[in-house]
Please model this.
Amino acid sequence: MPLFIRFKQVASVLVDAVPAILLTAMFLCFIIQVLMRYIMNTPVGWTVEVCVIAWLWILLWGQSVSAREEDEIRFDILYGSVSLALRRWFRMIFSVFLVGIYAWSLPALWDFVTFMKIQKTSYLDIRFNWIYSIAVVFSVVSILRYLWVFWTAARGDDASKAGTDAVVRKDPVK
Amino acid sequence: QDKPILRLSSVVSENDIRAEAFAEIAEAVSDQFDMQVFNGATLVKQGTEMTSIQRGNLEMGLIAPQTISEQIPEWSILTSAYLFKDADHLKATFKSDVGAQLLKLTEEAGIHVLAPVYFGTRQVNLAPEKEVMKPEDLKGVTLRMPGGDAWQFLGEAIGASPTPLAYAEVYTALQTGAIDGQDNPLPNDYNMKFYEVTSQIVLTGHLVGFDVLAISAKLWNDFTPEQQEALQSAVDTAIDKSTQRHIAREEELIQFFKDEGLKVYEPDRVAFRDYAQKKYLESEFAQSWPEGMIDAINALAD
Amino acid sequence: MSWEFGACVAVILMTAIIGLPIGHAMLASSIFYLLLQGHDMSIAFEQMLTGLYGSYVLLAIPLFIFAADLMNVGSLSDRLLDFCRALVGRFRGGLGHVNVVSSLIFSGMSGSAIADAVGMGRIIINLMTKDGKYPGAYASAITAASAIIGPIIPPSIPMVLFALVSDTSIGFLFLAGVVPGLILGVLLMVMNAWQARVYNYPVDDPVPLRDLPRITFRAVPALLMPVILLVGIYGGVTTPTEAAALAALYAFLVSTVFYRSVTLRTAYQTVRNSARSTASVGFLIAGALAFNYVVTIEQVPNVIRDALGDQELTFWSFLLMVNVMLLLLGCLLEANAILLVIVPIFLPTAVALGVDPVHFGVIVVVNTMIGLATPPYGLLLFVVTSITKSPIRDTIRHLLPFLAIMIAGLAIITFVPDLVLWLPRLYGYKG
Ligand code: NA
Ligand code: NA
Model:
């Protein structure tokens, strides 16, 4: 059991590290881009490509693999003010909807992503099926996450801490 | 029976000459087709028209040759500097055996090309007041070019230091000096008000700018001959007219820019042409060009 | 417009109201629409992916968030706050003024109202509510109201988004935001002074004037940030998008090298948190991109344009109508969604009626930013109430006077175009 907990910790660190590394890469690329154009007078174009790929992956990774309840932006005037029991019903209803839609569209998404191997990115020559594969990850992980949401709600757990404070990060400000 | 729906996605703005041409086509074929035009890249994003047609999610698109060459490397020859002399040369090439050879490749990829759509010849537009006669004069000049390596190489091929930049940021970047210049056909220089923040236009004429108006090949082959004929002739009429209007517009804009106080002059085009063609032949792009095609296209110049 | 479109909109509203995260609601409902129409369901994903991949100017968002987060962990925000307190803390409702003034200054570094509210806002809220000086709901309200100013003064993510849909020069849009931003700041301070009198809020202990030079000196690196950004953009070093990276670099260097308040470990935590905020905010845009396709294919813009055409609108009545419509939409819709989906509908009419696109851009941005704080759906409202834990209803009550004066400010900005266009024209804008 401690081994399992240890594994969970390591996995969680790694899962969080991906978007962090991507954002760092994006930051460095922008700096390189400015330096190369303004100081070196030899502009580069590949930095833009790294940045847009990083941006895409930060978003979809961050909203699926490393997503947390409190990072989700939701309209919680009603959701945040109803009883816990009713909220569980809400969770069950929207989970069914989301899982249903994402699962139903998964074959079509797979078809699109694999089709996109037909094109490569301009500078780095990466095939677009690899770039867009994050969407498949996003869809599959979202399906699993919302199955879990449904399961906890159906069991009567209040797994959700998402009340009116759902929008704000919990990390302390310095 | 319902008329077939033809949704056309293009990046041109609603008030562009080409948008009028598309509206004319839609009007002319309205008996046989329900043609819906979506300008401003509102339907599908710029550069995704080809894959959208291939996946059956779009019927027609205005596709840049740069986009096609990402799938069909042979097409990159059409994106090289100083290939076409003018709009007539462009049209003649598409009607020739060379054109047939290139169109066969797009046909196999599921794209039927209806016509090349000319939108002006690209000229270099600079903020600094230095005289540019030869490619060497552009050494170290930071020139904004559209993103993508084919475009960036075009900038290198005329001797400049190309840098990619979002179109909407070009004006400010020219004004602040973040870039020295940009290259576009004269009507674009006018629309984006670049002449307010630049001092000169060098008539390099380094690229005859065109996109292709295309339709799904599968759809096209399922049309009756009458339908094909109706669409093709509507396209030919409207696009010829659009081409003539572009050429006339370029003529009158030269005078307009001079009146605005810009220096507008022609450099040593032969020097530019030799420099650029040499650069291209040494590049990886030329490796995908079909044998003898460049000579065949050159031969069609007159 | 088809019944399938109606179904799509209904499903978005319903699922969002029962608590499905909004980005998911928009994406899933767009897929649902495609399913009903029998179209390829992957189009929704394709639109999202290609839209994100092709939108270079959106890249400013993560970098501005990163810069703001760095300012908070490195003590730049604190020093800025000390400076503001020394300056205006001596007046009744002084901390309220500090809140507004710090937003004005901070706005030079952040392009995002949310970043302002969770950054500086959180620090000031803690100060205001300490010892029960101000009720939490009032602190929330003025923080939300003043955060609105952030994206009106450059740099500004919403203006970048407006430039994206309108092909307007970002540089001129930025310049055009300066005067309206200052006007709104002054109006908020007037309202704060009045509210402070009504509720008899306390006066902060005055900072001795002899300490002012020291406090100012301490704040110099933070005060230099907007200067550096402006020099970066208008001196030709960076484009406005790249300026976000420059801001982050500056905040990073100051807090690691100069203040030594950021270690490698805190730097990593910061970048990780920024990436998470980026994903939250960015996913709203992603959902909007998918829904955008549905709106386009249904030719909603044409329907509205035709309806507008029948109205025989004049210049002024059009602007009035846009303001009312956007304010109402702002109560329901997310700001980025309004900018990406709704604004393109109005643009052609605006241009046809001779409304200056830069002026129009400022109107739209002020409008959508006010929408961020208007109930029922206001992201800023959720953010600030979650910091103070005060009931939303109380916060709304304290917010209403501020919203009222902001709307008055919006009217001024709308009907006196010269106020907006004066600064851009000074820098050569011909409009
Ligand atoms: Na504030
Ligand atoms: Na700002």
